[in-house]
Amino acid sequence: MAHTIVIFGASGDLTGRKLIPAIYSLHQKKRLPPDTRIVGCARTSFTHEAWRQHLGESTATFLGSQFDKAAWESLAPRIFYSPGNVDNQADFQSLAALLAEIECGQPAERVYYLSMAPQLYAAAAANLGAAQMAAETNGPRRVVVEKPFGTDLASARQLNTDLHAVFAEHQIFRIDHYLGKETVQNLLVLRFANAIFEPIWNRNYVEHVEITAAEELTVGHRAGYYDTAGVLRDMLQGHLLQLLTLTAMETPVRFEADCIRDEKVKILRAVRPLKPENVATDAIRGQYRAYANEPGVRPGSQTATFAAVKFNIDNWRWQGVPFYIRSGKAMSCATTQLVIQFRKPPFMLFGGKTEDRESNQLVIQIQPAEGVQLRFYTKVPDAGMKLRMTDLEFRFRQQFTGPMPEAYERLLLDVINGDASLFARSDEVETAWSIVDPIQAAWDSGQPPLLLYDAGGWGPEESTAWIEKQGQHWFDACPVLH
Ligand code: BG6
């Protein structure tokens, strides 16, 4: 059966930066079904040829030395363009005509990728429905919905309702590119393909879990979007809660989409929602000082660019184990890491007090260099019984050759194959919003006060005091693996 990928909002940034380079790489690796066609659809007017030319240039720029002109030229003739506005039903007729032409009227597997302004998702779905383009009578029809999926629980529910009016749940692929990262998927392998971690992966051995997504980047030219979103909606609701679920969930009964997503939803439901009166003690919000001067930021904006939140998970495995989640822009470096901090030995045989010793830690570095580090004490040679914290390291780049694939490659291929394991289900996104909403509501009402921080550090200074008051320390380390 032929395959067609239709990208709505095709003239936007994501198409040139991520989607087309990912499709190109899949094509180059011979993983894209050979009969795949790609159709761009946006308001800007392009001929097929001008569109191919435009994408060829942007793909060459983004892939640099990995770009191979001959490979591109074998893909380019399969790329088409259909000008149109997702708000306008008539434009779907011309799109349908183009699709019928390139699919030769034969059954085809179609992917509709919604990559435009989120307020247009509902209109796009409704118009696809009205044009009879969502029904699966002539082959599978799947729709990919980019983030943000709503801005709170109410809007996410509404969007689910709008999508479900046209598409069944099995047709909807809510994308979170963090799930396409190799290291994020490796979390499942680390936990569920090895027997050594499971016995200690619980409240008896783990003292706390820390998940940090630090970005050196500032908001840059994205303030138009970011100033209304902020760090909770932009990073925490999706990417960071996804990391939390994969770290905390129980073993799925099978490695299948719904089995995995059932376990993820169970964890999200077990996350204790913050009561309004606890937001001030369990969460911190900050803004980097230069944010106010970024182009497009509203005067006096209180949008948070840094968040640190303590979550508790009310189930048997994690009762009493805090999960500290933080993310910020304009931090000292770009690194995303999970730290499993184990309990200290009950008694220190080698002198000194247990509380003065560091804990064992398992550091899972999601990016930039992907790998795992286990930190433990070792005897310093020829120095009596002096101990030092040392580590065992695993780096993907040392053990495996070839560049790490971009997250979108894996995710696009999964959509083409109809595998929703790495996509969020409707109840998953809604439950995630129900965790974030009370925090956002407190912040919107001005509680706790917004803390300013200098770029190039680890967020507001108060964040260090906040975690220390709870007897813990942040793992403030720029990538530990290179
Ligand atoms: C996006 C956010 O979803 O993820 C951005 O909108 C953020 O603000 C980005 O910079 C981070 O992704 P990555 O893959 O660079 O960690």
Task: Supply database-style keywords.
Dihydrodipicolinate Reductase, domain 2; 36% helix; 2 domains; binds 6-O-phosphono-beta-D-glucopyranose; 9-stranded mixed beta sheet; alpha/beta; Rossmann fold; 482 residues; 14 helices; globular; 6-stranded parallel beta sheet; single chain
Could you please describe the fold and organization of this structure?
By secondary structure, the chain is α/β, with parallel strands linked by helices. The chain folds into 2 domains: 2-146, Rossmann fold (3-Layer(aba) Sandwich), CATH 3.40.50.720; 179-407 and 425-468, 2-Layer Sandwich (Dihydrodipicolinate Reductase, domain 2). Helix content is 36%, strand content 20%. Helix 5 links the parallel strand 4 and strand 5. 6-O-phosphono-beta-D-glucopyranose binds next to loops. 6-O-phosphono-beta-D-glucopyranose binds at residues 147, 177, 215, 234, 336.
Give a quick summary of the entry.
The chain is 36% helix and 20% strand. With 482 residues, it is of the alpha/beta class.
| CATH class categorisation of the largest domain | Alpha Beta
Radius of gyration of CA atoms, rounded to a whole number: 24 Å
What is the annotated CATH architecture of the largest domain? 2-Layer Sandwich
Distance between the termini: 44 Å
Which spans have pLDDT < 50 for at least 5 consecutive residues?
none
Give the number of DSSP strands.
15
Shape: globular
Specify the number of helices.
14
CATH topology (fold) name of the largest domain = Dihydrodipicolinate Reductase, domain 2
Query: In what range is the share of β-strand residues?
Result: 15-25%
Strand and helix order: EHEHHEHEHEHEHEHHHEEEEEEEHHHEH
Ligands bound, unique:
6-O-phosphono-beta-D-glucopyranose
Instruction: Give average pLDDT, whole number.
Output: 96
Helix content: 25-40%
Structural class of the helices, strands and pairings? alpha/beta
Instruction: Please summarize the sheet with the most strands.
Output: 9 strands, mixed
Counted up, domains total 2
Strand order of the largest sheet: 14-13-12-11-7-10-9-8-15
